[in-house]
Amino acid sequence: MKSIALIPARYAATRFRGKLMAELKGKTVIRHTYDATVATGLFAEVIVATDSDIIFQEITAHGGKAVMTTGNHESGTDRIAEAAQHLEADVIVNVQGDTPFVKKEPLQKLLRQFEDDSVQVGSLMQVLDDEALIADPNYVKVCVDKKMNALFFSRSVIPYPRNKNIAIIYYEHIGVYAFRKQALIDFTTWPVSPLEDAEKVECLRYLENGIPLRMVVTDFMGVEIDTPEDLQRAEQLL
User: What is the pLDDT of residue 45?
Assistant: First the structure.
């Protein structure tokens, strides 16, 4: 099974503009992510897909591979779908550009899900036990069924703890996806769905079109850089 990693990288992030070019211990966030993805050794190619000349130069000047995409994409998935059109691959992994703590084991577990022919899309999640982060809308929560397929993703607290007498496990969705190539292309043919538009969580488009997402529990994946505060937390971890 040939696997390729694509890293969508938009410079003008809404909440933290230029975050991918922010310095993290002497190296930009996007280079941390790129180098960590390459270091897993799992992929035939690792490519940054960006609409930014600045990010393109940052990657290629340091020996990495990048492609330019158009700037009008609604989501990172739309961006990598454009880049994937002419790539030969069985499975394409979307590694978000703001995830500098990429590790081999979670991605390896994610790729193994595709040994099941029924799996079209997969993603990662980790246990979230900080009450402040559970309540934080910047942290997307996910609920799953007994087969580990996603039931729903939300910025709200799900499940809601109406019953105070039981232990509830909360999962944070980590923005790393894997797709069969056709499932990735299909995503771009569907309009933005109502729940996706309300939550601003792109993977809801798959659920609203009847495509399950197989979720994989992973150990701590570090920090996704969505805010300046996240950058500070990442610096402490490093």
Answer: 96
Backbone angles phi, psi at 106, to 5 degrees: -60, -40
Question: φ, ψ for residue 79 (rounded to 5)?
Answer: -65, -45
**CATH code, domain with 72:** 3.90.550.10
CA distances from 50 to 71, 109, 180, 183 (A): 8, 27, 21, 21
Q: What gap in Å lies between CA 88 and CA 171, rounded to an integer?
A: 33
| 237 confidence band (pLDDT: 50, 70, 90) | confident
The total domain count for the chain is: 1
Domain hosting residue 19, numbered range? 3-237
Q: Helix, strand, coil: what percent of the chain each, to 5?
A: 35, 25, 45
Residues 175, 140: Cα–Cα separation, whole Å: 9
